[in-house]
Design a protein that fits this description.
disordered N terminus; single chain; 4 domains; about 350 residues; Arc Repressor Mutant, subunit A; 6-stranded mixed sheet; alpha/beta
Length: about 350
C-alpha cells in the first residue's frame, strides 16, 4: 500500500500535473513583487525619448545610471528595447508595442499615487517648448487666486494625448497634428515663424534675407520623440526643392539653439519660442522670406467631460499665454503681434 502511494506521486503523476499551474504562477508574482518601480519610470523616458542621453536629461539622472537601468530592463523584459540603426537608436518591435502601453499605464499609476478626496483643481499638460515662457506666469497667476494648479509637460502631441485620454490631466495646451474625434478644442493664439542664427555671424544686409540666401542656409530639422516638431516648416522647404537629407536633424530644441549660437546653422521656430531663446542666447532673429503656415496653439479637452469651470479655465490660461507670448516677442521688435484666438 505504501509503495502504491509512493508511485502515485512520482514523476508525471496526475497529482503533480494538477499542481503545475500553481507552481508556474508563483514565480511570476514573485518577479512582479521584486520589480523596482523606478525602472518603470526609466522605461517610460526611454520609450518617449528613444535616446539614453535625452532620457537621462529628462529624468535628471546621469547617462551611465540610465544605461545601467536599460541593461536591467533588457534582462527583465527579455528584449533589447533600443537598438542601433543607420539613423541612430530605434525601438525594437517589442519596444514599439510598449511605447503604446507604458505612458498611459504610468499616467494611471501617477493618478493613483497623487489622488485625493478633495478637488484636484486644474490639471494641464503643456507643450514643453512653451514651458520656459508660460510656466512662471501661470503658477504666479494661480497662486494669487489660491487655486490648485497641476502642470505636466509633453514633448509631442501623442505624448500629451496619452495623458489626456488616461485622464491624468483635464486639458492639453499645444498643437495636435490631426483632427481627433474624441476631443474638443479652442484656439488660444496663432503665430508666425522666425529663423534664428548666430549673433553677428550672418550678414544679410537687413532683417529679411533673400530667398536664395535663406534656402542656402543649413537648416535644423527638429525631431522630438520621433515626430517632426514643426512639419509645416519642413513641408514648405520641400516645395522649394530642399530635401530632408540636406537638413541637420536635432532631437532637442535647447540643444538645437545652443548649436546655432556657435555655428552657421539656422533654426526656425514659432515667435514665442524665439523670444525666450533670443533672451538667453546670442542669437539674431530673421523674418523668413518664404510663406510658412502659422503655428496654432489650442486648448484641448475630452468630448463629454464635465465643464462647469471650463470657460473660466480657458479664459485664464488663454489670457496668460497671450500676455507672456507678447512679452517675449517684445525682444523681437521686428515682428507683429500674435493673432488672438477670438
Amino acid at each position: 500500500m505504501e509503495q502504491k502511494q509512493a508511485s502515485g506521486i512520482g514523476p508525471g503523476s496526475r497529482a503533480e500535473n494538477a499542481a503545475k499551474p500553481v507552481e508556474q504562477a508563483v514565480p511570476l508574482d514573485a518577479k512582479l513583487a521584486g520589480v523596482d518601480l523606478n525602472l518603470l519610470v526609466v522605461l517610460e523616458a526611454l520609450l518617449l525619448c528613444r535616446n539614453v542621453t535625452h532620457a537621462a536629461r529628462r529624468l535628471g539622472q546621469t547617462q551611465p545610471a540610465v544605461s545601467r537601468a536599460l541593461a536591467r530592463l533588457r534582462e527583465l523584459l527579455g528584449d533589447d528595447l533600443l537598438v542601433r540603426s543607420s539613423t541612430g537608436l530605434k525601438l525594437t518591435s517589442r519596444g514599439e508595442q510598449l511605447a503604446n502601453i507604458v505612458p498611459m499605464t504610468m499616467a494611471h499609476v501617477r493618478e493613483v499615487i497623487s489622488s485625493r478626496q478633495i478637488d484636484q483643481g486644474v490639471r494641464l499638460s503643456m507643450n514643453a517648448s512653451l514651458t520656459p515662457a508660460l510656466l512662471p506666469h501661470l503658477l504666479k497667476s494661480s497662486a494669487r487666486k489660491n487655486e490648485q494648479f497641476r502642470i505636466n509637460t509633453h514633448k509631442c502631441p501623442d505624448e500629451g494625448l496619452l495623458q489626456l485620454r488616461a485622464r491624468a490631466v483635464d486639458y492639453l495646451l499645444g498643437t495636435c497634428n490631426e483632427d481627433e474625434p474624441d476631443l474638443e478644442s479652442e484656439l488660444v493664439f496663432a503665430e508666425d515663424f522666425v529663423t534664428l542664427v548666430a549673433f553677428e555671424r550672418h550678414q544679410f544686409g537687413g532683417i529679411r534675407p533673400s530667398k536664395n540666401s535663406f534656402l542656402e542656409l543649413t537648416h535644423i530639422h527638429l525631431v522630438e520623440n520621433g515626430a517632426e516638431a514643426y512639419p509645416q516648416f519642413i513641408d514648405t522647404l520641400m516645395t522649394y526643392g530642399r530635401r530632408r537629407g540636406q537638413l541637420f536633424e536635432v532631437q532637442d530644441i535647447t540643444s538645437a539653439a545652443l548649436m546655432v549660437s556657435e555655428s552657421s546653422l539656422a533654426l526656425t521656430v514659432p515667435r514665442s519660442i524665439a523670444g525666450w531663446l533670443v533672451r538667453t542666447l546670442r542669437l539674431s532673429a530673421l523674418l523668413p522670406p518664404i510663406a510658412i503656415p502659422q503655428q496654432k496653439v489650442s486648448m484641448y479637452w475630452l468630448s463629454g467631460a464635465p465643464g462647469g469651470t471650463r470657460r473660466h479655465v480657458i479664459d485664464e490660461i488663454g489670457a496668460a499665454a497671450r500676455t507672456v507670448v507678447a512679452q517675449d516677442q517684445a525682444h523681437l521688435r521686428i515682428l507683429r503681434s500674435i493673432d488672438g484666438g477670438e
